[in-house]
Amino acid sequence: MLEPTRIARLREAFVAADYTADGCLELLGAAAYAALARSESVPALRATTGAGALQTLVRLFLLQRAVSYPAAATALPVEEALADGWLVRTSESDVRATVDIRPYANDIAGEQAAAEAWIVSDLGCAVGGAGGIGSGAATDQGVSRGELVLGVGGASTTLANIAVRRPVRRALDLGTGSGIQALHAARHAGRVVATDVNPRALHFTRLSAEISGLGDRIEVREGSLFEPLQADETFDLVLSNPPFVISPGERFTYRDGGMAGDELCRSLVAQAGAHLEPGGYCQLLANWQHVRGEDWRDRVASWVSGSGCDAWVVQRDVQDVTTYAELWLRDGGDHLGPRADYERRYAEWLDAFEAADVEGVGFGWITLRRLPEQGADVKPILVAEEWPHPVEQPLGPVIEQWFERQDFLRAQDDAGLLAAHYLLADEVVQEQVGVPGAEDPEHVILRQNRGMRRATKVDSVGAGFVGVCDGSLGAGDILDAIARLLDEDPVVLRDRAPEQIRLLVEQGFLRPA
Length: 513
Description:
Mean pLDDT: 92
Structural class: alpha/beta
Oligomer: single chain
Strand order of the largest sheet: 8-7-6-9-10-12-11-13
Helix content: 25-40%
Number of strands: 19
Strand content: 15-25%
Shape: globular
Radius of gyration: 26 Å
Low-confidence stretches: 108-113, 127-135
């Protein structure tokens, strides 16, 4: 039941027992806490044999174990929890939880310190997919497996970490699920709209919002993609962890979009610009098909074309069609059912990919930013790149800075680049590669230890240039000094430098002073 006053008392009981992310980590220890993320509960069970309120709440809501009624009564308002459906009796003396309620430290990207939150999801769906539930049509609780609502997983955490976190007036969480992105957005947005095609997901979002003390800042609406919005309704930030899985059918609402191939992600990207304020961001996770004879970059670029947005697309991984099918068949629990059914469904996936000439599936993130209202001569920028390497999270500030640097570069011709002053980014190091004992290195590598953690090769002039970029001198003046030092023609250096400066600024090694 969604009764704010009683849910507030439940939240007070959680806080009093220290049923928070930090409290659970301290109780369980790092190893047992990490094991929960792998769906392994034995270490946590061994750490919660005591009779304290925190141990009881962990066993109830994290481990989904029955506890005695007296133990539950010492930890929370048990009669209200039973009446409102959070708990049910398993016997005269024991109770168990009907949902997973997971503490969530809502502190990504410098959000305010006192930001405890709790995510409400279906039992067994807090981490990963629905595979732990079994392969039947419904769960033991009678919930259709197609309507299950997931909690915190790797995809939701990824999106939360890449989101641009700046104070905004209105934000949209499209395909909200259990409300994870909406809770984050509510910390820095005046108002949040959360949409989903699944009514159960919207109810879980409202529960998550109320129990986290944010119910008055989050509005829920039912519908697919942008359908629940008015035609002219716009936002400063749109976040979406959509049902991006490219599957041959629509079995699970939380992952299958019900459209052919990657059409759902294409449709979302193509429509997003119309619902963004000038300068507003849309950030989403997506899958896209690698079609035989087609560059995936061209495919995604066609989604963005005509949106009125700058775009940065990063492909983080690519899987062949067999690996991809197996991943999502296991996610759906098909490997737990009859072998003949598993093989039939596997063949359906491969048939669909073969019919569409799909050789693989890419996964990554897409960030769109609506162009500020300027003249018609301002052309959108699209960069689509493959970057499977480790990055430093949270990446939201890095993404926002990337778009700011694109604005700078778009406004500068070569003369402007040479007249500008630059600063070397934090924690950039130089590596020299060459034969031991040689007078000069064969290569000079600049490497970032922050953000995207890129590396790029420069020549001796480029290395010397970035080494003195402290904002005090213009780029042209620095190049003239290097030319005198190396006894080279300064005109030649000035002619060839803008291309390298543009690359170093775009990739974040240098920033305008």
